[in-house]
Amino acid sequence: MGKDFAKKIAAGAVWLLIWLLCWLTVGKDVLIPSPAAVLLRLGQLICTLPFWQQVGLSLLRILTGFALALVLGAVFGALTARSALADTLLSPALRTVRAIPVASFIILLFVLMSKEYIPTVTSFLMVLPVVWSNVDQGVRSTDIQLLEMAQVFRLSRRKVLRHIWLPQVAPFFLAAARTGMGLAWKAGVAAEVLAAPRLGIGRALYEAKVYLETADLFAWTAVIVCISVVLEKGLVWLIGRCCHEA
């Protein structure tokens, strides 16, 4: 554990040194700001109320879309795995959604709804096919012999769900959630940059680009990366605990 942590610190130091060398070579803060300038600007942002408002609204939008995708994706996955009719109706549409680039969705959503809702819907559409395909695969790979044994011993549906279906599908669902969280966060922020809602991290990035505030751009990018790491680790812990208690 200690060696792994030391390796991560060393790798971070190497990349920080590369950043510093690039800053010294370019010599223009408008192109590449110094690490110190970015750290200072990040500290200034954290101490302001608008920063937390923007972070909070972005989290609310993106996590709402992510949560809806988890629920509906799991339902659709179970349906398509267990019903030929549902598979025929839903699978082509979900595969189409998975194949469409995120930029196409954002542009289309501009026509259909208010820009405040675009990040939520974009996150939802990016995560939904991922959860569906993983849950569908998990249900299909469930051991048939276990289900037959449950029928022989006349286990209730609740016990079958708890002791057979959930343990079999949980690893697939967890993998989908981890992948989907990253997709939701990146796609949601990208949607905010293009849609430019009233408040949000994407709006802050857009304004930093327009006004050539490169230190702000780097600082907000660092915020995005940190939140992404925290969300993924928190999600893994939460789902793992829920599955263990189930």
What can you tell me about this protein's structure?
By secondary structure, the protein is an all-alpha fold. It folds into two domains: about 1-30; about 35-245, MetI-like fold. Helices cover about 85% and strands about 0% of the residues. It starts with a helix and ends with a helix.
* Poorly predicted spans: none
CATH architecture of the largest domain: Orthogonal Bundle
The CATH homologous superfamily of the largest domain is termed MetI-like
CATH class of the largest domain: Mainly Alpha
Q: Determine the number of helices (DSSP H or I, runs of at least 4 residues).
A: 10
* CA radius of gyration: 22 Å
The SS-based structural class is mainly alpha
Task: Please outline the major beta sheet.
Answer: none
How widely separated are the two ends? 29 Å
Number of domains: 2
DSSP E strands, number: 0
Strand content: under 5%
Shape: globular
- What is the fold-level CATH name, i.e. the topology of the largest domain? MetI-like fold
**Residue-averaged pLDDT:** 84
Helical percentage: over 70%
Write the layout of secondary structure elements.
Blueprint: H1 2-26, H2 35-46, H3 49-82, H4 84-99, H5 102-112, H6 118-140, H7 144-152, H8 157-195, H9 201-210, H10 214-245
Helix pairs in contact: 2-10, 3-4, 3-6, 3-8, 3-9, 4-6, 5-6, 5-8, 6-8, 8-9, 8-10, 9-10
List descriptors.
single chain; 2 domains; mainly alpha; 10 helices; 246 residues; MetI-like fold
Short description:
The protein has 246 residues and is an all-alpha fold.
